[in-house]
Amino acid sequence: MRLKFIEERIAKILMSLASLLVILFVVSILYTILKRGMPALNWDMATKIPEGGYYNGGGGGVLNAIMGSLFIVLGSTILGLLISIPVVFYMNVYLSKTSKLAYISRLAFDVMFGIPSIVYGAFAFSIMIYLGMRTSLGGGILVITLLVIPIFIRSMDEVAQHLPKDLLDASYSLGATKLETIKVVLLQIAPGIATATLLSVGRAIGDAAGVMFTAGFTDSIPTSLSAPAATLPLSVFFQLSSPSASVQDRAYASALILTIIVLIISVLGRLVTTYFSKNKI
Amino acid sequence: MNRILKNKIAAGMMFSLTLASISLVVLIGMGLYLKSAPIFKEHSLWELISSADWQPSSGKFGFLPFIGGTLWITGIAVILALPVALLTSIFLSEHSKPYVKKWIFPALDILAGIPSVVYGVWGILLVVPWVSEVLAPHFVEYATGYSTLSGGIVLGVMILPLLISLFVEIFAAVPRDLRDAALSLGATRWQTSKLVILRKTLPGLLAAVMLAISRAFGETIAVLMVCGNIPLLPHSLFDSCYPLPALIANNYGEMLSVPMYESALMLAAFFLFIVVLIFNTSSRAVIYKLERKFQ
Q1: Same domain, yes or no, for A11 and A108?
Q2: At residue A278, does pLDDT exceed 60?
Q3: Which residues, 6 or more positions from B3, have their beta carbon under 8 angstroms from its beta carbon?
């Protein structure tokens, strides 16, 4: 056999092995979490807040963290959408393709996308101290909003950049102003909005470093924006640092709950993307 | 008239919203700098990054162990992840059949979506024991497993999906004609990938690696859980290390009583910010240019 065909064969084997390794990592992570999380997982974990002495092995569950994460995700997603839709609309309809401002803003959002959440967290915390605020649900929501805005804008912008120009022209020629054209644009970038939302929800629910100083931690479900809020990743983290084995087991169970939520979001994301790409022009 | 006015007002509002979001980057940079400025009055920048003496209570802030720790685990992560990511993405974009993609893309989705704290749990349950019981006994007498190597492995798995998705995107930008030309001259598929695709996309691949590095730099919770967090410069892969983000995460909130401590931690955040800023802008510019070239 010629050398190049042997090389081709070897390369193919290596590539298959690498791909297999990727799948192996996923299986290994899911299996490990499932195996250690399952025994400690019970209905109480997901439906009760920690009772007295929970972190020394007392009864209860992590409902406080589940609800806290939910509130933070909900709040930051709504805020993020409210901010990013107008920005994407402005960048793609009001500004021309070659505009300097559009270029700079895309670059800025790329940089924001790269800023680690710990930096957002530290920055927000020092501002909160300066303003005399305590760790609170509101603070957590604000930091996570900063975290998800670039995700929203980048993935919506991806779709909006491929808007057919004719479509906008058709709208203008019927006498619509640029603002009124938003109805047309929104319909067109709807799939982008859906995938962006799922992406950012996934990122928001899993983030621990950003909410560590800003949302704080508590055993009760937050009742107002100024009350501290627990979050699932931090709850996993704190339970894991307990010396008691039974509490550590519950950390694994909480990690399992978090993983299940994220997996559901990821599957939904796939479904939404395939559903919308069916109807693509 | 009313509609036109509305349009104008909306334009103004959206403009200011866009401007405000952009200026956030500048604001964060400035805020971090101002907050970390006080420490420069007592120590020079060189002193801060070259000293390994970290004793906040006696006013000694040597960042070397933390910078060293971050560089170590990031380096290990990239060395481990790069070959796997490169091979997988060439496989995905040049060779594989549809059914392969049907399995690998969802797997990558899951890998990208798993929260970092879950990676940390996986690291503690699987990677740390493996390092301490299987790998370390061949090299050193005793190792806890909470080590630079464990951090690097966990981080490497975490940046895999990012690297692969960037690589696949870059390969997809290469025009079909180039491949067809190489194949019709008798090159095998692997030769085409190696000699044409890889060579053509090299700047883009480097940029993608830089993006992954800047992501790895800021990773906090997962590495904090498996690195051991001892503020000494690691001498071997089995020593503990203490990366910058872990330093901020572990000490923020308790630092208010010690003078200069907050400044020092803010400086750590500022370091991360600057690295991300430089790496991101330069690599984006390269990728942007590359995609332009192929269009």
Answers
A1: no
A2: no
A3: A177, A179, A180
